[in-house]
Amino acid sequence: MDYDPDAEAVGEAIKEAVPANVSEAIRTLIRWSGDNPEREGLLETPERVARAWREYCRGYNADPAYHLSRIFHEVGGYDDIVLLKDIPFQSHCEHHMAPIIGRGHIAYLPGKYVVGISKLARVLHAFANRLQVQERLTAEVANCIWENLKPQGVAVVIEATHGCMTGRGVRTPNVLMKTSRMLGVFRDDEKSREEVLKLIDS
Ligand SMILES: [Zn+2]
Prior knowledge:
Blueprint: H1 5-15, H2 20-33, H3 45-56, E1 71-72, E2 82-93, E3 99-109, E4 114-115, H4 118-128, E5 131-132, H5 134-149, E6 153-162, H6 163-166, E7 177-184, H7 185-188, H8 190-201
Parallel strand pairs: 2-5
Antiparallel strand pairs: 1-4, 2-3, 3-6, 6-7
Helix pairs in contact: 1-3, 2-3, 4-5
Binding site for Zn(2+): 93, 96, 164
Keywords: GTP-binding, Hydrolase, Metal-binding, Nucleotide-binding, One-carbon metabolism, Zinc
Pathway: Cofactor biosynthesis; 7,8-dihydroneopterin triphosphate biosynthesis; 7,8-dihydroneopterin triphosphate from GTP: step 1/1
């Protein structure tokens, strides 16, 4: 069961032939940006960009819930918060296809089940490797864990910078956008929410 859908998708993207209309679209974009796609440095760029985009968007070929299908019933009496902090990720905003670079923090209060902690990072990556908005990414990760792991509570906090803000438009570097989604006890019980947010901030 060491099948890794992420790794497989990357491998396929590297091997895959790039259709002529895809390369042509990127050449058109280079021309539109003001450069000449026929100059030497740009000759192989369309194929590279096309393959890179397959890789950025490999989450479309991933099933995020797959990573939660191996659950462990034995929690060994552990009945406190499990937190995976500072998970780096990269995504792309669906409005400009510009990079979103950030970190996610995922916490849950187990019910009957726990998972290997790396699986939480894989759920984040499976949703991040798509065209996204940060709010939806946050909600999708939380909902997926909520529905598949059936914990007592889930807290997902995502902090990210958006290329479309730092590199264009208002050009405000170092602005960090923070989103959170709380479910179960972390939504309903103020004390639990405070406890998990304190853990995440510490
Ligand atoms: Zn954007």
